Structure formats: C-alpha cells, structure tokens
Amino acid sequence: MTREPEVSPIGEAMGWVARITAIGLTMFVPGVAGTWLDARLGTKLLGPVGLVAGFVVAIATLARLRGGRSRRVP
C-alpha cells in the first residue's frame, strides 16, 4: 500500500486559490473577448454568447471538482 505524501495547509490553500482563480477567469475572459470582437466586427452577439459560454464551462468545472471527491466509507 503506497502512502500519498501529506500536503501542507499552505500547499492545499494555494491549490484552492489556483482552482478559484481559474474558474473566475473561465467566467470572465470569454465575455471580454466576445465584447472585444463585437467592437471590432460591429456585432452585438458575441459578448453575451461569451458570457453564457464562460458561465456554462465554469459550472461544468465546478461540477467536475465536486464529483471528483472521493467518498469515505465510515
């Protein structure tokens, strides 16, 4: 039986900071990119589509993070 190395509390916190930052950027960047493209192309659809797409991907990522936790049997 192999033992997994223990992670320090700071290391675990940094891992969560990275996850939260990545999810926040996943929600924000597509909307900004869509708005920028709207300004360049003269459209009004890509900004809202980017926001919705970013939100959907972020929710899917959160669901995957939640589903990835192992369940402990007492």
Structure description:
The protein is mainly α and about 70 residues long. The protein has a domain at about 25-65. The chain is built from two helices and no strands. The protein has helices spanning about 10-40, 45-65. α1 (about 10-40) packs antiparallel against α2 (about 45-65). The longest helix has about 35 residues, at about 10-40. The mean pLDDT is about 90.
Secondary structure blueprint with pairings:
Layout: H1 9-41, H2 46-67
Helix pairs in contact: 1-2
Search tags:
elongated, mainly alpha, 74 residues, single chain
Helix % is: over 70%
Radius of gyration: 18 Å
Number of strands: 0
What is the SS-derived class? mainly alpha
Helix and strand sequence: HH
Number of helices: 2
Mean pLDDT across all amino acids? 89
| Main sheet overview | none
- What are the segments in which pLDDT stays under 50 over at least 5 consecutive residues? none
Overall geometry comes to elongated
Strand content: under 5%
Q: Give the termini distance in whole angstroms.
A: 19 Å
